[in-house]
Amino acid sequence: MTRNKSIFLVGIFFLIVIIFGAVFWQMFNRNNDEAFDKIKKEAKVGLTGAQVVPSAQQNSTAADALAGATSEAGTETPKDTQASVSGDATKTPEDKPEESKDETADWEVYADEKKKFEFKYPPNASVTPSGDLIRISQERKIWKMRLFFNKDKSDLATWYNEEFSDKERKNCTLSESATLKVGSYETKYANPNSGDSECTKAGYFSVSSDKKYVIRLELGSETVENANKILKTFKFLTE
């Protein structure tokens, strides 16, 4: 009976040991898992920090280096860099803008017999002088140009009022020309005061810079646009 009791107690003891061992082993494994997870998390955080911090430091270092290089080099940009930025480095001789063509280059030149003035006219036009009167014909449209001598060298308005009588100037208004221009000279337009009135001495008038001569233009059926192409080449030769 004593022996059986001893065996029983031993069995109880080993059973307790086994139970406590199992419990201890489970606790050990759980702690190890938690510890391992904690290690993994710390390692991951450390790895992320190792990637971020050096990158920021590198950017800061690169910016400092660039600022230092700019400070040492000054504010002047190298010529090669300027050419590259502006695009001049890529330009070729073919990129140069074309010079505007002179449409009057092949035109004829008319100078009056007394050398008072000259102008150019296109090949399809004709010029017919008759004393102080010149007829210009182009595409069956004829307009006239007449030369006057301004003996008193008066301004254009004064000359107009003195040259023509009150009857000739009746219903006429002399004003600055807004459409037709004779060369670089002052040009005025004498036109009727109204559509119902008649202005005998209507037309465009231009005076030379030295006020020695006055030109009167009567466009007739010609357009201002076509007349301007010729008149922009007009110049007095007495100045």
Enumerate the spans where pLDDT stays under 50 for 5 or more consecutive residues.
45-63, 69-73
Strand content: 15-25%
End-to-end distance, in Å?
Answer: 159 Å
Task: Classify the helix fraction into a percent range.
Answer: 40-55%
Specify the CATH architecture of the largest domain: 3-Layer(aba) Sandwich
Looking at how many chains there are and whether they match, the oligomeric state comes to: single chain
Give the spatial strand order of the biggest sheet: 3-4-5-9-8-7-6
Sequence of secondary-structure elements: HHEEEEEHHEEEEHE
- Derived from helix and strand composition plus strand pairing, the structural class reads alpha+beta
Radius of gyration, in Å, reads: 53 Å
* CATH classification, class level of the largest domain: Alpha Beta
Total domain units = 2
CATH superfamily of the largest domain: Mog1/PsbP, alpha/beta/alpha sandwich
Per the principal axes of the C-alpha atoms, what is the gross shape?
rod-shaped
* Mean pLDDT rating: 77
Number of strands: 10
Q: Largest sheet at a glance?
A: 7 strands, antiparallel
User: How many distinct helices?
Assistant: 5
CATH fold-type name of the largest domain? Protein Transport Mog1p, Chain A
